[in-house]
Amino acid sequence: MTNRWSIERVELxxxxxxxxxxxxxxxxxxxxxxxxxVGVELTEPAGSRTSGWGECVALGAPSYSAExxxxxxxxxxxxxxxxxxxxxxxxxxxxxxxLARLHGHPMAKAxxxxxxxxxxxxAAGQSFASFLGAERTRIPSGxxxxxHDSTDDLLATVQGYVxxxxxxxxxKIEPGSDIEQVAAVRExxxxxxxxxxxxxxxxxxxxxxxLARLDEFDMLLIEQPLPEDDIIGHARLADEVxxxxxxxESLVSAAGTADAIELGAxxxxxxxxxxxxxxxxxxxxxxxxxxxxxxxxxxxxxxxxIGRAANAGLAALPGFTLPGDIxxxxxxxxxxVVTEPITVTDGHVTVPTSPGLGFELDLDVLDAVTxxxxxxxxxxxxxxx
Length: 385
Ligand code: NPQ
Ligand code: MG
Hints:
Blueprint: E1 6-25, E2 28-43, E3 49-56, H1 69-86, H2 92-99, H3 106-124, H4 128-132, E4 138-140, E5 142-145, H5 151-164, E6 168-172, H6 178-189, E7 195-198, H7 208-212, E8 222-223, H8 231-240, E9 245-247, H9 254-262, E10 268-271, H10 279-291, E11 296-298, H11 305-314, E12 348-350, H12 363-369, E13 370-377, E14 382-384
Helix pairs in contact: 1-3, 2-3, 5-6, 9-10
The structure holds N-acetyl naphthylalanine and magnesium ion (MG).
């Protein structure tokens, strides 16, 4: 007997979050994150009320995947919310089902489901980790290091993160500087520090022999070397390269993940809730991967404390056997929009235990970084704030 809730009001808030240093990947460089937050106010037939927040991980441009933040906001206002409002009382598990008739836009859908989930867990007085049945109280923290022009600068950056206590280093790579920089970082951190690379689709099918040169550096995995739709290409690479092939961009659903595993293209899975349409689909991918004995880890999209708290709850599940990209908020942001930003102690993040996804908003900071707000009421009327 689960409660179902009516959506009374939705707030879409855009925030501008400057990065502490530019973050460069094989698809570009960013100095600021333009993030869409989704707030929901729900009521139960008996009259009780609750509210919650979700975070949309879409970037400003369709560079990582096809979604981008203006598009996500548009599809939420004009397509997803009208469908959801028309569905009547819902709980979080209904959101994906109701929205499944509309194609694509997983990050926009995920943000809506996330807000409903936060609201419903707050009403139930239950933490996200407890809702999932996750028992770990802390999780190991890895850090993602952007591409640097100079190897000396790169080594100084990596040393700083080692000093901060991160238990695993992930280096962004692209053709040209990859082998030299991987060799230099491995030399710096020594053989015992877990180390992996992320290509964000920068290589071609013909790069198998080149990528096999990375094998000597004893890395945990190579993340998404080829374009997202090239599953067979990744399967071939997995035969040519000893280092395990991990998929990120390619994995957009549990069904597609099952196929990629079956084809030998996915030896390890990066699970990002936004990319797969929400935390509940992320859990289904986790369960599938556990049954197939495929190790998983939780990726990151430079989330605020909202997404970071939820990711920490998800990553407390037992199949997350590799350190995730859940670093301290200060890795990316000087000021976070939550009262207790995620921190790293002895290389670990504490799994939140408070009701909901595990954060409280700092309304002063939130207002200071807000660039626009709109509100949509239960009948679908949109008001600019
Ligand atoms: C990845 N994330 O695993 C992504 C890519 C990503 C933590 O490496 C601004 C600029 C925001 C680049 C969000 C990490 C970004 C970004 C995510 C890259 O592929
Ligand atoms: Mg990646």
